[in-house]
Amino acid sequence: MRPLFVSVLGWLLATSLLAGEEHRVPRVRSEPLPHHQVSFLAGETEKTRWHFGADAPRPFFYPCNGPSGSSLTRMGHPGDAGHDHHRSIWFAHHDVGGLTFWADGKGTSIRQKTWFCYQDGDEESAMAVQLGWVGPDGREVLQQDLISVMRPMAEGEFTLELQSLFRPGGDLPEIKLGKTNFGFLAVRVAKTISETFGGGLLTNSEGQTHEPAIFGQPAAWVDYSGPVAPSGKTEGITYFDHPSNPRFPSKWHVREDGWMGASFCMDEGFNITRDQPLRLRYLLHAHGGSLVVEKAREVQSGFANRPALEMVEHQGKHGRWDIRRATASPTP
């Protein structure tokens, strides 16, 4: 009986190994966690985390871990409690139909209404969710379909691609975005990376440096790099606008105290209708070392030529939606 037992055991082990070879575990994952959070992982290393609980007025990404493992972003201003609404990486706008979604304590909120898809893979992971921008009266004035894609790179770097499709909320036929420097996507860098509180440097695609030269100027991208705690290594974030965005290249709202944002409505407002929604695409590159302009241009070129993201109906079992690259990049 022993030879038969050994043969059966060998067959079971071989079958198990073959089954393991047939199903590859994705290296890059987006994993839902307790307390309304989603972790974006490369192997066992968390790159960033999405927070959408009702304990904050609007969702945000934190941390944004650079190659050394330290976060390149922070929660709030290093020296002013009046800027606690600066939550790492977040979406907001100062004038949506006359309502401000920028500051806290105004009765407005941005709430995640549902998730559509969490998608894993060997090269990237993705998440698709729907957000509702809600006024003090509980009425939704703006709807945001957000697709987030995290893509690891060499040497512990990664990119976070953020594509939003904005439509009027509820049964509104249109919604007006007012003229403002504030909105949509903002980044508050770590204290040590800021120019004022640390040893950082602001640079844009035009070769300009520091807040006075960059503020209000058009650029394809802006970079904030500096030392990170506790190692003191230099790392940074490059924030890219996309050529398909209206008003590209964006003008930028930047501060030497440690934040940057593409200012979509700096010069004038924008009208969003049901027939003409607004699609905006941005990319954040968490990199090691100081800014290397040639590398930033390479990342910008790759982003510019990458098709837009879209959701399609899932064709297999036990799923409703998939995220894929569009075969073309049509205007929404």
What topology does this entry show?
Blueprint: H1 2-22, E1 28-33, E2 37-42, E3 45-51, E4 60-64, E5 89-93, E6 109-119, E7 125-134, E8 140-152, E9 158-168, E10 174-177, E11 183-188, E12 201-204, H2 211-214, E13 221-227, E14 234-241, E15 251-255, E16 259-263, E17 270-273, E18 278-288, H3 293-304, E19 309-313, E20 321-325
Antiparallel strand pairs: 1-2, 2-3, 3-4, 4-5, 5-11, 6-7, 7-8, 8-9, 9-18, 10-17, 11-16, 12-13, 13-14, 14-18, 15-16, 19-20
Please provide a brief summary of the model.
This protein is mostly beta strands and 332 residues long. 11% of the residues lie in helices and 42% in strands.
Placed side by side, the strands forming the largest sheet appear as 1-2-3-4-5-11-16-15
Q: What is the rounded distance between the termini? A: 69 Å
Structural class: mainly beta
**Count of beta strands:** 20
CATH topology assignment: Beta-galactosidase, Chain A, domain 5
Shape annotation: globular
Unreliable stretches, pLDDT < 50, 5 or more residues? 1-6
SSE succession: HEEEEEEEEEEEEHEEEEEEHEE
